[in-house]
What does this fold into?
Amino acid sequence: VRAGESFVARISLIHEGRLPAMSLCAGLDHSRRKHGRRDIEMPLDASAMQWVPDIAPGATSTIEQSLTFLRRGVHEMPPVRVESLFPFHLFRSTQWLDSGESMVITPRRLDWDSEMAWQVIHASLRGLAVGLSQGDHQHYVGSLEYRAGMPVRRWDFASWARLGRPILREFNSAAKQTVTVFIDTTPVESDAAVTPMSRWRRYADDEDASLERLLSIASAGLETLVGANVQVRLVVPWQAPSVIQSQERNGKLRSVLCEGASDPTPLLMALAEAEPVDADTAQEVLHAMPQAGGTFHGVVFSRREREAADLSHLPDLMWLNINEDSRDSFGNMAVSSIDNDATKVLA
It folds into this structure.
């Protein structure tokens, strides 16, 4: 479930007594949460207690309520308040029941229309995905003479002109391409001045708007890659929710793997408890990522400039700075200064 988006919780009341339970009112009571009361929002009509006329012994009664978690993270569900007004509303007895259930709340959904930086980032990621699906210059294995019916990926015009016969360039594309993604949550001094093009709404006064914006853009990027049939390995330097089953560990480096064209929810859930890391930790993660070359492809979402990190061992890494001014005065077009732009990937 995304932060700031409502969902319907289904509550099942199981009567374990020997006599029927009658004249009951039940519903979620977020005021009884041990902490984070202001993290939940419930519409007035949905927060009202719901009437349950009776429940037979051993029977189950189900009610539904709508609620919204305003912050990402792993949140405990509020307790269920059950009131008995039997008999004839003369008495009122109340008890609170903890379900023990928790919800993993993922970063807020990105507002694509108001986030100008996303337009360039999205184009770069789409270009990377297309390049992976078609093969790129790193996987060139040789040339051969064209014969009728052969699939054409790219012509070798230089050899064609020299030999006088149509020549093809052959590429060896791996059947499954994996992109390693790292979300660099290292803060920067200018975080207070978020890009003017972003109209980010704070749900709480103490919310780190810059971090939440980074995670929302990164989550949209993860969805873009997975939706383009790219396998994604997300590096997680913080504690990821234990409910994620696809976690891997390589030394101190934890990661979550998601197949291409599948449900990206595990990746989004891994961002639920994301927190800022210092520059040294981020550099350790970058050094632990696979070496550039071969079939390695890496993407970093960050609030910092590319020059702020030592990437000498990862020259082909795609570094996406969400605070970068993505609109230059060139034909009124959005221009990216990312080194690995879409045109280079497709070349």
